[in-house]
């Protein structure tokens, strides 16, 4: 058994996933003026649903994480040049115009015509996949420094880096089940609010809840095909559709290049300290020997031995 | 059975790892294990045992923890003796213990650890001639006074040749060291104790607590008890507090992803001891609330 053992339960990782998922959101809006044409958009991304499942083959399964595009709206505008009619002189006199025809102008707004396509909360992308984890040693990063403390202070210590190892990825750019479900949900809400408007809000809420239950069944039925595909992908550890296969390869490339996190070796077991009577004390450094990370059905375990 | 069946995070460390850390602290923070007055700070080569430091430890790092002079009784704080004290060996042993304890400490009890160490110390004596010369000089400064004045506590300031005149501390003069008279002695030290989870406002931490200290082969017993008291205070106030491990340091820096509230898992039938000391390992069970 290794000198040092640290284990995190799957439940903790799940809670962390939910917190991170719920706190993740960004949005952006902008507009482009192309002379008579304008295009403005407002786009944002939120994460919903999804789950993390530790598997016995040393991998973590990400199940059906939805990327919801909300807000997502595009407005096309057309600015028609102003056209004015009238205003000409009907009764001219030597002293100027005594009577003018009324002047009427058209297309004075900018844009004069606008159409908005609002898909907020309707389109959903779904991601599923697996990944393993591996620790890689990056040696001699601190070469050229006189001692390990200087290397640590300069941020050039040797490092152990935790890399994700993607297994398979299944990305449904437009998740049909959820997209149709969202659309039906919005229609139901609008219909109930319109038709049952005399009823109090709580009564309409009950009706909506019942009808959304039906939507949930529709979502499940529409998702069966995708679920089977994901099950097969997980079974064979390979993406079964071409798009996901390409994304899979790209993800593997980036996962190989970038570490999830890194820690220095030697590791500062005790931090640097001030000293009342002398110079500050350097951190106490411990060598990390043969660290390993393992995922089981129920927990993630990091083990290592220590060297002076 | 999974390690985290009854907790959120499980951390376990073998006694070998702790001893590796102790060795690293001793060689990278030698001033925690070697103490001395200014003479020994300047001449660490005259300590009882050679200090072993990490081969690349920067020269700016103190080798000896500076201590004030040991006041010479009767001189009103004017003179002080140079001394040094070193913890030259220190090793921990978790139950079931491998270290043979002295009979006074008995056998190592379950859920306890044993410490074995070696303490060396010396008082640096001055040359004999110097003592006689300065003694004569001091005798010459003491003048008799009127007995009535003594009873009335008068002429205090005149009499007190060696007393600081007011609240201003008077510097203590070090008694010169005769390098041939640094009388070193080494004692084998054993201690037993337990590890508790304490929380004094800085989050829960694992802290070592000594229960018994024994120094082998010292007579009379009063001397033994006094030295044990000194060594125990040195360990508990000087060294062990620096070795406390914050529980939140064992959480993989998960706090970067969410707000974590760390607490020790309450003891129960499934977790009868927390922390648990058994099979040469120290194990901690940690609960995590995430918000």
Note the run of SSEs of chain B as H and E.
Answer: EHEHEEEEHHHEEEHEEEE
SSE sequence of chain A, one letter per element: EHEEEEEEEEEHEHHHEEEE
Estimated helix fraction of chain B: 10-25%
Mean pLDDT of chain A: 83
Structure commentary:
The complex is a heterodimer of chains A (308) and B (291). With 308 residues, chain A is α+β, with helices and mostly antiparallel strands. Chain A has one domain. Chain A is built from five helices and 15 strands. In chain A, the strands form four sheets. In chain A, strands 2, 3, 4, 9, 10, 11 and 12 form a seven-stranded antiparallel sheet that branches. A four-stranded antiparallel sheet of chain A has the order 1-15-14-13. Chain B is elongated, with a radius of gyration of 25 Å. In chain B, strands 2, 3, 4, 5, 6, 7, 8, 9 and 10 form a nine-stranded mixed sheet that branches. By secondary structure, chain B is α+β, with helices and mostly antiparallel strands. Chain B has one domain. Chain B has six helices and 13 strands. Chains A and B meet through strand 1, helix 1, strand 14 and strand 15 of A and strand 1, helix 1 and strand 3 of B.
Brief summary of the model shown:
The complex is a heterodimer of chains A (308) and B (291). By secondary structure, chain A is of the alpha+beta class. Chain A has helices at 10-23, 148-153, 176-195, 201-236, 242-257, and strands at residues 4-9, 25-34, 37-54, 59-78, 83-86, 89-93, 96-100, 103-106, 113-118, 124-138, 158-172, 261-265, 267-270, 284-295, 299-307.
